[in-house]
Amino acid sequence: xxxxxxxxxxxxxxxxxxxxxxxxxxxxxxxxxxxxxxxxxxxxxxxxxxxxxxxxxxxxxxxxxxxxxxxxxxxxxxxxxxxxxxxxxxxxxxxxxxxxxxxxxxxxxxxxxxxxxxxxxxxxxxxxxxxxxxxxxxxxxxxxxxxxxxxxxxxxxxxxxxxxxxxxxxxxxxxxxxxxxxxxxxxxxxxxxxxxxxxxxxxxxxxxxxxxxxxxxxxxxxxxxxxxxxxxxxxxxxxxxxxxxxxxxxxxxxxxxxxxxxxxxxxxxxxxxxxxxxxxxxxx
Length: 284
Fold this sequence. Notes:
mainly alpha
């Protein structure tokens, strides 16, 4: 996509992180320049083999079906999402001129994309970025005895697929099913909670396994030890905020709205939302 120039749009949440310190800002711009120069120097045209194209067609379709089956076709999923994430509360966060919903009426389709992803990032499930991948990879490999070899070949020789897998492994590694489980416990219907969280956890395990097999490593991020170490060092500081947030959400949802105690608890919840977003270095 580069033709000798580049235009960058930065999201508001990263401006202070990347440019608040002159030394970090210079380093970041040097990294962007370095990546741009590499992209300009690398041969951009890669012959996409028919087997790769067929694989991607099947993977995208199977992934789409698995995602829609959970999000759109599972009875009670909207209730699960509303209770197992702080979506209702983060809608009160003063970070945008736009409301969380396009319309006060309407169901899931009225939700804006940013609050949707933001809420799953807070609960550490992060399903919008990876759910369906494990099912797609499983179906493909079960349909073709040579499937895993084809996927490994695509990873090694097709830059597009390599970038896709690398991005996936980062979010799957950042997702924490242990933390997500304590959010699932906020769901009032125990059967619904067990069903949907069980599906999320099983899909995470499938995705984790296949990504490791494609990349050729024992654990995710083994090929990027700096990122792996960063997450390992960060989590002990972010995890307590999740535990605090869950406890506050449980207490908040027992209060009558617009009372002094409700507003006090809501303010504390919003503080944890800010803290988790800062610790995860993203709203999603």
